[in-house]
Design a protein that fits this description.
Layout: H1 3-9, E1 14-18, H2 23-33, E2 37-39, E3 44-50, E4 55-60, E5 64-68, H3 72-85, H4 93-96, E6 105-111, E7 120-127, H5 129-138, H6 148-161, E8 164-169, H7 171-181, H8 184-200, E9 208-211, H9 216-222, E10 232-235, H10 242-266, H11 276-289, H12 292-297, H13 303-311
C-alpha cells in the first residue's frame, strides 16, 4: 500500500466487523501465537491486548469483533484482511473507494446473468499501469454504458493487449449446474474462482478486484491453491476500476458472440434481456422445435419460463 493510502488508513483508531463462528478459534490461536495477552471481558469470548501493537481486540459472543487503538490500521492491513477475512471489508468502504489503484491487477466480471437466452460468461483481465492508460484512451468503461457495436471492437483490443481468461457456461451446462447447486451466487462464485485460478497460471499478481455479487464466503470457498494465497477485493460498483471494466467488456463481448452463434444454430434470433420479446421468441422456439429446445437456449430457473409454460 502506498504511503498516502496508508496515511488515510492510519486515521482509523476503532473498527468493528462481524465474524463467523469458524473464524473464532483461528483468531484466538493467531493472537496467542503473536504474543497477545487474553483476558475475560463481560459479554465477550475474550479480549486480547498487546502493548507493543497499541491495540485492544475484543471478540463478543454475538460474533462482533471490535478493534481499538492506534494500531488498528496496521492490524486491519497486515492481519485481519489478508489472513482472517481475506477480503476488503466494507466497514470502511468510504476510505477504500477513495484509494484509486494503479497497480498491476486482475479484474473479474460477468455477463449474461440477467439474460434469459444465452450463456453465463465470467471473464478476467490482467492489466498493468501502462496498459491501463491505453485501455482508457480506447474508451474502456463499464460495458453497460457502451453500445454492442463498440463492445465487439473493444473485445478484440482487450484480447490483443491483456492476458485474460474466460469461462463460458452454456445454457445446458448452466441448467445442470443450477439444478445441482440451487443458488446463482454460488454458481457465479465457482465461475469467478475458475477465472482467477486460470489467470494466476499466466501472470504473477497479488491483487484481484471483482464486482461484489453476494456473500463473500462463496467465492473464498470456491478458490483453490493459487487463489487462496492472495486477497480478493470485492467492491460494490467495481466497474469503475479499469481492470474490472475491461473484464466486463470482454465478458459482454463474448456473451454477444455466443448468443449470435446460438441463434444461428437454432435458426432463430435470440434477443437479449428478459422481456416480452424474449417470451414471444421462446414460444416460437418451442412451437418450431419442441420444449427440449428451450433447455438448449435458456436459463430455465427464470420466472420467464413459468410465464411461457402457463401460456402454452
Amino acid at each position: 500500500m502506498k504511503a498516502a493510502e496508508l496515511a488515510k488508513l492510519k486515521e482509523i483508531t476503532t473498527y468493528t466487523v462481524q465474524l463467523s463462528p469458524p473464524q473464532y478459534p483461528q483468531l484466538r490461536k493467531d493472537l496467542e501465537e503473536h504474543g497477545f495477552v487474553l483476558k475475560k471481558t463481560p459479554y465477550a469470548f475474550f479480549s486480547a491486548l498487546k502493548d507493543s501493537e497499541k491495540i485492544n481486540v475484543t471478540l463478543y459472543k454475538s460474533g462482533k469483533l471490535v478493534l481499538q487503538g492506534k494500531g488498528t490500521a496496521e492490524f486491519i492491513q497486515y492481519y485481519l484482511e489478508p489472513v482472517l477475512l481475506r477480503q476488503i471489508n466494507y466497514g470502511y468502504e468510504d476510505i477504500i473507494n477513495d484509494l484509486e489503484s494503479h497497480d498491476a491487477r486482475i479484474g473479474v466480471d460477468e455477463s449474461g446473468k440477467g439474460d434469459y437466452f444465452g450463456p453465463l460468461i465470467i471473464a478476467g483481465v490482467y492489466i498493468t499501469p501502462k496498459v491501463e492508460k491505453t485501455l482508457r484512451k480506447l474508451g474502456v468503461k463499464d460495458s453497460k454504458n457502451i453500445s454492442d457495436k463498440k463492445i465487439r471492437v473493444l473485445r478484440e483490443k482487450i484480447i490483443e493487449l491483456c492476458p485474460f481468461s474466460v469461462v463460458v457456461i452454456g445454457p445446458e451446462r448452466y441448467n445442470d449446474l443450477y439444478d445441482r447447486i440451487g443458488n446463482l451466487n454460488r454458481l457465479l462464485a465457482w465461475g469467478h474462482a475458475r477465472v482467477i485460478e486460470n489467470l494466476l497460471t499466466k501472470v504473477d499478481c497479488d491483487k484481484v478486484i471483482i464486482d461484489k455479487f453476494g456473500n463473500n464466503k462463496y467465492i473464498l470457498d470456491s478458490l483453490m491453491k493459487r487463489g487462496k494465497k492472495i486477497p480478493i477485493v470485492q467492491k460494490v460498483r467495481a466497474e469503475v476500476d479499469c481492470a474490472v471494466a475491461a473484464a466486463s467488456v470482454l465478458a459482454r463481448g463474448e456473451f454477444l458472440r455466443r448468443l449470435a452463434k446460438l441463434s444461428k444454430e437454432l435458426e432463430i434470433k435470440l434477443p437479449k434481456g428478459a422481456n416480452d420479446k424474449v417470451e414471444t421468441t421462446a414460444k416460437e422456439l418451442i412451437s418450431q422445435q419442441g420444449i427440449d429446445s428451450l433447455k438448449k437456449a435458456a436459463k430455465m430457473h427464470f420466472k420467464t419460463t413459468r410465464k411461457i409454460f402457463m401460456d402454452l
